[in-house]
Write a structure and sequence with these properties.
- The complex is a heterodimer of chains A (259) and B (318).
- Chain A contains 7 helices and 13 strands.
- Chain A is 29% helix and 29% strand.
- Chain B has 318 residues and is of the alpha/beta class.
- Chain B has 2 domains: 166 residues, Rossmann fold (3-Layer(aba) Sandwich), CATH 3.40.50.620; 119 residues, 3-Layer(aba) Sandwich (Rossmann fold).
- Chain B has a 7-stranded parallel sheet with strand order 7-11-6-1-4-5-12, with helices on both faces. In chain B, strands 15-14-16-17-18 form a 5-stranded parallel sheet.
- Classes of the chains: A alpha/beta (259), B alpha/beta (318).
- The interface between A and B is large, with 88 and 100 residues.
- Strand 9 of chain A pairs antiparallel with strand 13 of chain B.
Chain lengths: 259, 318
């Protein structure tokens, strides 16, 4: 049972984001990058599958050189192989990224493709289903439970306030939601073992794709701006609970018009 | 190529709120871009309702319950017939599942989770919060069709008073779907999703323990809202992650957001500060949540929240 896990490297969720001088990118100077949190659930599920059934877990990342750190971290947690597709992922859109990942996946033996349900930060939630479409695979999106069977799998998909149980033929694309599992940390042994694994590296051209097809964006960022600082409103201190509750009711009724 | 096509979702014979919102902004975009507003749905019973929101035509295929491959095929046929400049989806689970699938099929760009849309210089221009609202991105979609998914609650539903949409049948796709719905597990009674809620009552670590979420639930039920939660409480296992508001949960923008015992980590603020009216209750006067609150109450949530629940019940019965 072989899995491919596609990962995105994103700014730390605790980071303050600054906008670069061109007004269209974020300023990466001094920014700490992490494996996108949802991708950690994707990776963990693949590692568990490997532990139960054997096979390889190949992590694939598209982006500049810094992506190698993220791939290394995934190896330390238990991935067995890594492929870095070099390129300016920041200059493409989700479909461009999906085309690169799909082409890369085709070069790797696999039964299941795992991704996070979204890359934290740009928050498009697009790449997983796009990869599935390009590969002609079924998809189950926003998955909170996954069980492998013979040539098929069962996945629980989170929808508004409910859950769908979906049976899917393999190979399939699964996008991970928080709650799918509890991702492990890298062990010291894992970190040492990961150092011995060479990260394979390919260019967009190596995958038979042209820069024009990938970097020619279908969705162009015109501007990035910081939201206006929200002004703090009124603050009530002291007084008893009953008075505070009455004040809140007044606000809900008169300003929010919600009662 | 002209006009706007909206993927309209039907629940119990009615349009989902997110679909009504998408139709409402879709009608304005169709006016600006030229061409008609059309919709595609799995149920002809919404022809009249879709018409009231401005749809001239409703493509209908009897495709049954939502399945990505079947619905993608129906939508593809609707796109081929309507040849729209823009395709819109309400930002629901199914809308977000289908939009990227069809985009890859027709090689189109998608602006997801947008809270503003306009037709400018012959292109779809969208604003979307990124980094959980820490940054606002304005993007242009360069392809025809241009695709967008709309953020719930960002576009007010507005009827236009049109007559019933003309129903155009689409043949049911003859596809052997590789992903099949086996069962839907219904939500627990009274549980409302935070995704589309107009009112959210959220609890944080200030609740001290899981059992005290009952205070939040009681208030939410009384006021008719959904139960939200901070990441800390979800990570502690006090409540299911479906309730989590913030960067690794849901980004929400309800009309009213009540935060009790939430200090306001940057993650959480990013996920809720676009709410239209914010009330915060916290015992620490320095809590960051007060920086975004329209009404901040410094005090003990264990006293104030039950008192508020009683007041809400009183207000509702009057």
């Amino acid at each position: 049972m072989n899995s491919v896990v596609c990962i995105a490297q994103v700014p730390d969720t605790e980071a303050r984001i600054k906008i670069a001088a061109d007004g269209r990118h974020i300023d990466e100077a001094g920014l700490k990058f992490i494996v996108s949190p949802y991708d950690e659930f994707a990776l963990e599920e693949a590692i568990r599958l490997k532990d139960a059934k054997g096979g390889d877990v190949t992590v694939v990342g598209f982006g500049p050189d810094r992506v190698q750190q993220a791939l290394r971290e995934c190896l330390a947690r238990g991935a067995t192989k890594a492929l870095h597709i070099k390129g300016e992922s920041g200059d493409t859109d989700s479909l461009g990224i999906a085309k690169v990942l799909a082409a890369a996946i085709k070069t790797i033996p696999h039964d299941v493709v795992f991704l996070g349900k979204q890359g934290v930060g740009t928050d498009n939630s697009l790449v997983g289903p796009m990869v599935a479409e390009i590969l002609g695979y079924p998809q189950v999106n926003v998955v909170t439970h996954f069980e492998i069977g013979e040539g098929k799998a069962t996945a629980h998909r989170e929808i508004e306030g409910a859950e769908e149980i979906i049976e899917v033929t393999l190979p399939a694309v699964i996008t991970a939601q928080k709650g799918l599992n509890e991702p492990r940390y890298a062990s010291l042994k894992g970190i040492m073992a990961a150092k011995k694994i060479a990260i394979d590296s390919k260019s967009i051209a190596d995958l038979g794709l042209s820069d024009g097809e990938i970097l020619n964006q279908r969705v162009k960022v015109v501007t990035l701006e910081l939201p206006p600082e929200k002004k703090a409103g009124r603050k009530i201190e002291g007084g008893d609970a009953a008075a505070a509750a009455k004040e809140i009711i007044k606000f809900i009724r008169e300003e929010a018009k919600a009662l | 190529m002209a006009g706007v096509l909206v993927f309209a979702e039907v629940v119990n014979g009615k349009l989902k709120k997110a679909s009504r919102e998408a139709l409402s902004i879709g009608r304005k975009l169709a006016q600006a871009a030229g061409g008609d507003l059309t919709a595609v749905a799995s149920d002809r019973s919404v022809a009249e309702e879709a018409g009231r929101y401005g749809a001239k035509k409703l493509f209908v295929a009897d495709a049954g319950a939502y399945a990505t491959e079947l619905y993608a095929s129906v939508l593809q046929q609707a796109i081929e017939q309507a040849k729209p400049s823009i395709v819109l989806f309400g930002g629901t689970s199914n809308g977000r599942d289908l939009a990227p699938r069809i985009a890859a099929r027709v090689n189109a760009g998608v602006a997801s989770d947008v809270d503003r849309l306009e037709w400018a210089n012959g292109k779809l221009r969208a604003r979307r919060p990124v980094y959980s609202g820490k940054v606002l991105a304005t993007v242009e979609v360069e392809t025809t069709p241009a695709i967008a998914t709309t953020r719930p609650n960002a576009f007010p539903p507005e009827e236009s008073g049109g007559g019933a949409a003309e129903v155009v049948e689409i043949a049911k796709p003859q596809i052997d779907a590789k992903a099949r719905l086996v069962e839907t597990k219904a939500p627990e009674a009274g549980e409302m999703s935070i995704a589309e809620a107009d009112i959210i009552v959220s609890g944080g670590r200030g609740l001290k323990e899981a059992a005290n979420f009952s205070l939040i639930r009681d208030l939410a039920h009384a006021i008719g809202g959904a139960v939200g939660a901070s990441r800390a409480t979800v990570d502690a296992g006090w409540i299911d992650h479906q309730h989590q508001v913030g960067q690794t949960g849901r980004v929400v923008s309800p009309n009213l957001y009540i935060a009790a015992g939430i200090s306001g980590a940057i993650q959480h603020l990013a996920g809720m500060s676009s709410s239209k009216h914010i009330v915060a209750i916290n015992k620490d006067p320095e809590a960051p949540i007060f920086r975004v609150a329209d009404l901040g109450v410094v005090g003990d949530l264990f006293q104030i929240v039950p008192a508020l629940t009683e007041e809400v019940k009183k207000a509702k019965t009057h």
